[in-house]
Amino acid sequence: MAYTIDEEQEINQLKEWWKENYKGIVVVFVLTLAVVYGWRYWQHYQVEQAQARSAQYEQLIVSDNAENKQEFQEFIQTHNNSAYAVFALLERARDEVEAKQYAEAEKLLQEALKQSTDSILTSVTALRLSEVQLQLKQYQKALESLQQVSGESWASAKYVLTGDIALAQGEKEQAKASFEQALSVADELEKPLIQVRLNNL
Does residue 162 surpass a pLDDT of 90? Predict the structure, then answer.
């Protein structure tokens, strides 16, 4: 097939352009493939890691405390600063509270607070820590722990616990003020329980 002069010039220009640019095009193509497959591999790896952490956490929770103390410590170290570490510490602290081992529960909750990188988990942990410190009659520490509770969702619980701490120290007026603050921000389910506290002052 014969080409016209214009077509020949276009073909020659295309050949020249390809000669000058093909290396860059190949590099971009290879990099694009690497990014796409690398991203897919990373996502797959992340899913596998999450499943493994979940399985380890489940095994840790269902196993007997006396048998898995070392396993528990290894899990916390391996999953340092993760939600799984915080959950495991909260679970273990709950067991200690049920056994009335408040000093041990306090240590676990303090560790959970250090491990937490999430504001919700931090607030939950700080509330539990404050409750345990109240049981230990560490009133100032309990109030300091409450300073780490943030967000409107936890406001009523924070005020209630502040009132409980004040009441434990015999400060009824301060307790009343805290319970009234709690009542002002509480939802309908919480209000009756807070009202009972106020009525009992």
Answer: yes
Long-range contacts of the stretch 179-185 (C-beta < 8 A, 24+): 182/155, 182/156, 182/157, 182/158, 183/156, 185/152, 185/155, 185/156, 185/159
pTM assigned to the model: 0.67
pLDDT at res. 6: 52
Gyration radius from the chain CA atoms: 30
* Backbone dihedral region for residue 60 (phi beyond 0: left; psi -120 to 50: alpha; all else: beta): alpha
What is the C-alpha separation between 186 and 173, in angstroms, rounded? 20
Report CA 139 to chain centroid distance, whole Å: 26
Alpha-carbon distance of 190 to 63, in angstroms, equals 35
Secondary structure letter of residue 66 according to DSSP: T
Instruction: Note the pLDDT tens digit of each residue in 52-107.
Output: 454 454 555 545 454 566 676 777 777 777 787 888 888 888 888 889 999 999 99
- Judged against a pLDDT cut of 70, whether residue 201 lies above it is answered with yes
Nearest to 91 by CA among 77, 67, 72: 72
Q: What angle do CA 89, 91, 95 make, to 5 degrees?
A: 110
